[in-house]
Amino acid sequence: MYRTLFFQAIALTFLLLSPIKNASAEEKLLSYKTMSADLALKAATAAMKSCREQGYQVSVAVVERGGATQVILRDDLAGILTPDVAIRKAMTALNFKTSTQDLVEPTSSGRPASGLRQLPGTIFVGGGIRIEAGGVTVGAMGISGAPDPDIDDACALAGIEAVVDILDF
After folding, report:
1. Residue 117, SS3?
2. Across-strand partners of 137?
3. CATH at 88
4. Considering the domain boundaries, does residue 122 fall inside one?
5. How far is residue 153 from each of residues 15, 70, 156, 163, measured CA to CA in Å?
6. Closest by alpha carbon to 60, among 117, 70, 161?
7. Is position 41 within any domain?
8. Burial code of 93-108, b = ≥16 C-beta within 10 A, e = fewer?
9. What is the pLDDT, as a whole number, of residue 7?
10. What does pTM read for this prediction?
11. Domain count, the chain
12. What is the signed CA dihedral for 121, 124, 125, 131, rounded to 10 degrees?
């Protein structure tokens, strides 16, 4: 009887481990798209130009899909805190997979998600936009310094629009 249980246990172990043992390289490795530094810089430069044309001095941050900062631009007269705020907006948009403007109302005081505002490094005000390529998030852009978050949003969208032909491949 013990001998039968022993062989059943070995057979069961073999069956459970065989898919792992026979896994192909494609199942073990992940491939994904990410922005090059040149593409991130092009988008950030276009966003800053859009704000400048409207008379606003801003900072622009672009983070790649893993959250590392790829580009940070601060216009000559942009406030000294704007680079940090721009990075936080980009990181918030990236982490929550939506624009920061869409997070303002659901995280406002008294709402069930209001506690999210206590998360370190996040900011729930317009100006953070995800960057997608072929339906996949490849990064995010944050703008800070315009007098209204809607203007920050518009500048970020202009920056992304400047590279949309490359993103849509």
Report:
1. helix
2. 132
3. 3.30.450.150
4. yes
5. 54, 19, 5, 16
6. 70
7. yes
8. bbbbeebbbebeeebe
9. 47
10. 0.82
11. 1
12. 70
Instruction: Output the pLDDT for position 128.
Output: 98
Residue 145 in domain: yes
- Over residues 72-102, the pLDDT tens digits come to 999 999 999 999 999 999 999 999 999 999 9
Contacts 24+ apart (CB under 8 A), 9-17: none
Tokens of 39: 């593409």
Whose CA is closest to 39, among 59, 64, 58, 76?
64
Range of the domain at 76: 37-167
**Cα-flanking dihedrals φ and ψ of residue 136, to 5°?**
-115, 135
Q: Which residues does the chain have with pLDDT short of 50?
A: 2, 5-7, 12
What is the Cα–Cα distance from 133 to 7, expressed in whole angstroms? 52
pLDDT in the model for residue 13? 53
Report CA torsion sign: 100, 101, 106, 109. Answer: positive
Residue 27 is assigned to a structural domain of this protein: no
Cα→Cα distances 123→11, 91, 109, 131, 143, Å: 54, 9, 14, 18, 12
